[in-house]
Amino acid sequence: MSDHFFVVTGGPGAGKTSLITELARRGFHTIPESGRTIIREEMQSGGDALPWVDPMAYAERMLEQDMHSFSAAQALSGPVIFDRGIADIVGYLTFCGLAVPSHVAAAAKAARYNHRIFLAPYWDEIFTQDTGHRAQGTGHRTPNASRPAPRPRRPVP
Length: 157
Prior knowledge:
The chain is an alpha/beta fold. It contains 6 helices and 5 strands. A 5-stranded parallel β-sheet has the order 2-3-1-4-5, covered by helices on one side. Helix 6 links the parallel strand 4 and strand 5 (153-155). The longest helix has 19 residues, at 55-73.
């Protein structure tokens, strides 16, 4: 387990990205959410790995990028804060009603983060409907399916 790897998870509109941005500003190592980057890249290139076109291809792209980020973060010292973790891909696929491929489940199990997971609850007052939020369409329901096994969760104040 990578005790210095911490995950902030939760649905769109919970303030995860704002929190991660502030932590980076304060000098913490942070890993941004892959979904937004993939949506932006796919829209610019006319690709199909978009949640509203091909959710499985989108999940596969997230897995590829998240595994790369997880591996690269091994070289960092001190706390590393992830805007969602690899296990969130399992939650996304489950939310979409899609079967979780065995290699995705294996990757989620192998990528070990600190046992404490920080859950950012849905916060309607700060939610803004940007392309990434519309695309994911998961709202406040994602966190309930974002972990393959029960783990301690700490609500983000």
